Amino acid sequence: MAFNSDTARAAGMKSRRGKGKYAGEMREKITALTDNLIDSINIEDLNTNQRLALLKLLLSHTLPKQQPLAAIETKLFDVEIVK
Predict the structure, then answer these.
(1) Which of 65, 40, 38, 73 is nearest to 54 (CA)?
(2) Helix (H), strand (E), coil (C) string for the chain
(3) d(CA 30, CA 15)
(4) Are 64 and 72 in contact (CB under 8 A)?
(5) Which residue in 12, 73, 44 sits closest to 4, CA to CA?
(6) Fewer CB atoms inside 10 A, N or C side of the chain?
(7) pTM exceeds 0.85 for this model
(8) pLDDT (tens digit per residue) in 1-55
(9) Rg of the chain's alpha carbons, rounded to an integer?
(10) How far apart are CA 3 and CA 8, in angstroms?
(11) How far from 3 is each of 7, 9, 22, CA to CA, in Å?
């Protein structure tokens, strides 16, 4: 059997790795731990630098990532002034 784009696509869909045994449980525990830690933070006790660091951290997880802008095509032309 030849290796081409069709067979490569089919081979890429097959996974030899099994499902993680504890993936769901770990995710739930980490989420619960994170929620408890966030709830225990008293914002009023933080200084300005700590508040900015927390804001920066939270914004990186809440705002969507910025997509790169498409390149703008520029065309050069000559202007000739006739009198």
Answers:
(1) 38
(2) CCCCHHHHHHHHHCCCCCCCCCHHHHHHHHHHHHHHHHHHCCHHHCCHHHHHHHHHHHHHHHCCCCCCCCCCCCCCCCCCCCC
(3) 26
(4) no
(5) 12
(6) C
(7) no
(8) 577 887 888 877 776 776 777 777 888 888 898 888 888 989 899 999 999 998 8
(9) 27
(10) 6
(11) 6, 10, 36
What pLDDT does 15 receive? Answer: 67
Contact criterion met (CB below 8 Å) for 61 and 74? no
- Sorted by sequence, the CB contacts under 8 Å of residue 51 that are 6+ apart come out as 43
Q: Which amino acid is at 2?
A: A
